[in-house]
Amino acid sequence: MKIKRGLLAAVLLLAFAVSFFFSGVDAVVTHKGTVAETFVPHYLTLYSLSSAPSLLLALIIALFIFALLSLFHGQPNVSFLFMAIMTVLYIVFLITYCAETRNNSVYNILNEQFLAEGIKVKKRDFNITMTPNWWCWLTAALILASTLTIFPDFRTPVTRYRLKRQVEPYIFIAPHVLLFVVFSMVPIIYGIYAAFTTWDLYNDPVFAGLRNFRTILFDSENTYFGQLRKGLWNTIKFMLYVTPFCIAVPFSIALATRSITRGSKVLQAVYYLPSLLSTTTVMLAWKYFFNNTYGMAVNLFGSTWNWFAPPYTWVMMIIITAWWGTGGTMVIYQSALASVPDDQYEAAAIDGAGAFGKFRYITLPNMSYPLMYTCVTTVIAQLNVYGQPNLLTGYNYNGANAVLLMYIRDTAFTQNIAGIASAMSMVLGAVIMAISFVQIRLMRGDSERAKRASR
Questions:
Q1: Is the pTM of this model over 0.70?
Q2: Where are the domains positioned within the chain?
Q3: Cα–Cα distance between 328 and 326 in angstroms, integer?
Q4: Distances (CA, A) of 191 to 33, 111, 232, 248, 435
Q5: Residue 122: what pLDDT?
């Protein structure tokens, strides 16, 4: 019986997917006796990127996939949870989307019809009426029917207990999964899609194929070709300069405070405190410290350098970033050092090993995975740098410290060329993935060799 109910629910889910493809809204607007109307299917709304409710469609599709996979894995109660959320979200989508009387995507379609008739209508004069077609009601009915098909049985304590055990873990992780899908997975998918379009953030994106990538990678006469290379090179330089200090400084502090018995917690709190500060707070504080007129670096230490001119800006950013990021990495190292067995050090001391020998053959092998983890995460963090160079120097000195994310941000939100900006973001993402992959492979090999040498 359960198998038949699960099979019926799966069939209804697949029918929902087919009906969803034909679903949409009929949009009508009347201006001075002239009527313009159009049909906007859901799949075009999903790719329009011009309406906030369209994000609900992406979430509904993700839940549809999760529900179908749960059915195939023999977990109808979990699938019921996903489908119940789908039903609510789809109804919310229909209500909120049809309530948009000035939807930008629909406005552009209807406005073209008015222009074809020689009528100019301002957007503020539009009052679009949108009504779901009968396919929408069929879609809602199918997802509701599939939900009711596998409605859990609450009659006996055994079934209630089984339902609780199956559904409870998903309820606990639901907030995190929801936030991840809405604010991470969906924007990533839309960002990849936008990289292959021409999009100004206001009108609907137009598919452009590989044109954006050809422009930024091969068109040497284009401005964005130079921005990609200059910004990417400055980003890589920042990563190369900063990463060693962001690893060595917290590692040294963790080693130094490990042997301190009194006051170690106070020192840990002092070193960790900067990591709690925001980017703007940190940058403004250090900007005042290095100020060429009234900064402490000039008046107290007698420095005559212009810290805001290359190459001293790199020194300044290294100091700030290492100071700011020491706390979190230091805590990881301290936890890893605390887990190293003391009997290994005692055995090494009996064998006559010195401080360097203990560090080389005991501490480092036991710290291999924390070091690998922090190296990879630090590299990724530094390749995503934006706040430090943007707040300290900006594009001064011909963009000597301008990193790629600064160019991406300005291209997308100042110049409204989101397609080029998304393509640049994909190039940066590919570089991060390649560097992280090589780094993990190399460090994994080193850690395995170090462990073999310590045996």
A1: yes
A2: 2-170, 214-454
A3: 6
A4: 41, 27, 19, 35, 21
A5: 75
